[in-house]
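I hope you will forgive my troubling you with a question about protein structure. Could you please explain, in whatever detail you think fit, how the C-alpha coordinates follow from the sequence? Thank you for your consideration; the sequence and its C-alpha coordinates are set out here.
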Amino acid sequence: MIIITTTELISRCLSRTEGFAVKEFFKAIKGEEKGNMNMRTLSATNSITVAALRKLEIVGILKTRSLGAKGTRYQILNMAALKDVVRNLK
Protein backbone atom coordinates (compact mmCIF):
# COMPACT_ATOMS: atom_id res chain seq x y z
CA MET A 1 0.00 0.00 0.00
CA ILE A 2 1.38 3.38 -1.03
CA ILE A 3 0.68 6.33 1.24
CA ILE A 4 0.78 9.78 -0.39
CA THR A 5 0.95 12.91 1.72
CA THR A 6 -1.14 15.94 0.86
CA THR A 7 1.88 17.95 -0.22
CA GLU A 8 3.00 15.15 -2.55
CA LEU A 9 -0.47 15.14 -4.08
CA ILE A 10 -0.36 18.92 -4.54
CA SER A 11 3.05 18.75 -6.20
CA ARG A 12 1.75 16.07 -8.58
CA CYS A 13 -1.22 18.27 -9.54
CA LEU A 14 1.08 21.03 -10.76
CA SER A 15 2.22 20.88 -14.36
CA ARG A 16 5.93 20.90 -15.12
CA THR A 17 5.99 24.62 -15.92
CA GLU A 18 3.81 25.45 -12.90
CA GLY A 19 6.24 23.51 -10.71
CA PHE A 20 9.10 25.52 -12.17
CA ALA A 21 7.19 28.74 -11.43
CA VAL A 22 6.55 27.66 -7.81
CA LYS A 23 10.24 26.87 -7.32
CA GLU A 24 11.21 30.30 -8.66
CA PHE A 25 8.58 32.00 -6.51
CA PHE A 26 9.90 30.20 -3.43
CA LYS A 27 13.47 31.30 -4.21
CA ALA A 28 12.35 34.88 -4.84
CA ILE A 29 10.47 35.33 -1.55
CA LYS A 30 13.52 34.26 0.49
CA GLY A 31 11.47 32.92 3.39
CA GLU A 32 9.35 36.04 3.91
CA GLU A 33 5.86 35.35 5.21
CA LYS A 34 4.25 38.26 3.34
CA GLY A 35 5.15 40.92 0.84
CA ASN A 36 4.74 42.22 -2.71
CA MET A 37 6.23 40.69 -5.82
CA ASN A 38 6.27 41.73 -9.44
CA MET A 39 5.62 38.53 -11.38
CA ARG A 40 7.64 39.85 -14.32
CA THR A 41 10.79 39.17 -12.30
CA LEU A 42 10.15 35.43 -12.62
CA SER A 43 11.16 33.73 -15.86
CA ALA A 44 7.88 31.78 -16.23
CA THR A 45 5.02 33.56 -17.99
CA ASN A 46 2.58 35.51 -15.87
CA SER A 47 -0.38 33.25 -16.64
CA ILE A 48 1.51 30.10 -15.62
CA THR A 49 2.73 31.68 -12.39
CA VAL A 50 -0.75 32.93 -11.52
CA ALA A 51 -2.28 29.50 -12.24
CA ALA A 52 0.28 27.79 -10.00
CA LEU A 53 -0.23 30.27 -7.17
CA ARG A 54 -4.00 29.92 -7.55
CA LYS A 55 -3.70 26.14 -7.04
CA LEU A 56 -1.66 26.72 -3.88
CA GLU A 57 -4.23 29.25 -2.74
CA ILE A 58 -7.08 26.75 -3.18
CA VAL A 59 -5.44 24.25 -0.80
CA GLY A 60 -4.72 26.94 1.80
CA ILE A 61 -0.95 27.28 1.54
CA LEU A 62 -0.95 30.97 0.61
CA LYS A 63 -3.16 33.95 -0.20
CA THR A 64 -2.59 36.27 -3.14
CA ARG A 65 -4.07 39.58 -4.20
CA SER A 66 -3.37 41.23 -7.53
CA LEU A 67 -2.32 44.87 -7.38
CA GLY A 68 -2.39 45.35 -11.14
CA ALA A 69 0.76 46.97 -12.53
CA LYS A 70 2.22 47.20 -9.01
CA GLY A 71 2.57 43.42 -8.75
CA THR A 72 0.97 40.83 -6.50
CA ARG A 73 0.64 40.83 -2.72
CA TYR A 74 1.18 37.42 -1.16
CA GLN A 75 0.86 35.97 2.32
CA ILE A 76 2.18 32.52 3.15
CA LEU A 77 -0.27 30.76 5.47
CA ASN A 78 1.66 27.50 5.84
CA MET A 79 5.40 27.85 5.18
CA ALA A 80 6.16 24.23 6.15
CA ALA A 81 3.69 22.93 3.55
CA LEU A 82 5.12 25.25 0.88
CA LYS A 83 8.66 24.00 1.61
CA ASP A 84 7.40 20.41 1.41
CA VAL A 85 5.65 21.04 -1.92
CA VAL A 86 8.82 22.61 -3.37
CA ARG A 87 10.88 19.68 -2.07
CA ASN A 88 8.50 17.16 -3.71
CA LEU A 89 8.58 18.88 -7.13
CA LYS A 90 10.66 17.07 -9.72
In short: Helices lie at 6-13, 16-29, 46-58, 79-88.
